[in-house]
């Protein structure tokens, strides 16, 4: 409080009045400067003129009430300070009544405000009936401080949000402008253009009308930019850049369609040929190998021809952007199908390679048997004959042949023991009993 008690107490001394008047005059100047700065704040001006929505609209409605109240209280406060200043300037030797009036202005409830009247249905029995609310200068300052802080908090939140959002929106806008320029240059349609234009427009509107929606609402990070919402800008920028690239590709395709379509047709033909070859090879292997069974061959090229034929419709409709994407997808599918067919064919051919390997090992073991002098042993002869019958019959059971071959290998080392050495369980060929089929 300023000085001594208000108008009901004794008047203040003249020096105390001068000191109090100097203080409130200084307060008035500082408050005036801050209110003008607040009113001229760029964020404040934008909020006043913008068509707001969502959280921003709700918070600005409350902040606007505070700013209105702030100016209303300040206007009444200023009038009291100016009245006291003018009165003090007019009297060099104030009387007791003059001192009392100056004391009332400076310390009493001299700030008069129109009281907001509640509707009759909302009144309580103890509601004030006086149409005027009276405050001291200090209480008026306290009320203005509360209103100012609330308004500044909201305006600062919106301003901080725009500081983060506007550079990101500018990056989106620049990427979109490049895509639109490319669209005008190439003269081809793209089905994703209208969708992306709508999404960017919605993002632009959200930034302008509801910047607070991009801030977190709760938790320890309340009021900071929400990473999930900020990621929208990166996605839209990437999509605009992708659109520009696709339009460029569409234009190139339009200028060079025939040779590129011929190359794609060749890729589909090659994929289908590889699939047929894999199926034919498996049939040959199945005729020669009974066990283990050859893996089934899927039709890796299924649907490629239909997709190739459908491209003509896109071309006829002038949908070059969609056509470029469809051709790129089909090229990748054809390459994948051809590679899968080749891999499947090599897998089944591995069974024939295994049979050749076992035949070679049988011949090697026979030479070893002759060298060891046991080639005429009845058991060795029997096992050799059985293994040969298995490996040279069709279809061949590789599992049975592998088992008999292992027995033959062991048998040639048994007779007399003089020629035998440790059983060869590997030789780097997997030719022991546990060798693979």
| Domain module count | 3
User: Which structural category fits the helices and strands?
Assistant: mainly alpha
Order of helices and strands: HHHHEEHHHHEHHHEH
Uncertain segments: 1-7, 117-122, 417-437
Q: End-to-end distance, in Å?
A: 103 Å
Mean of residue pLDDT?
87
As a percent range, the share of strand residues is under 5%
How big is the Rg?
Answer: 47 Å
Tally of DSSP β-strands: 4
- What topology, given as strand order, has the largest sheet? 1-2
Region (Disordered): 412-437
Biased composition (Gly residues): 427-437
Polypeptide structure, described:
It contains twelve helices and four strands. It is mainly α. The protein folds into three domains: 129 residues; 84 residues; 93 residues, no CATH class. It has a two-stranded antiparallel ribbon. Helix 5 runs antiparallel to helix 6. The termini are far apart. The relative contact order is 0.07. The N terminus and C terminus are likely disordered.
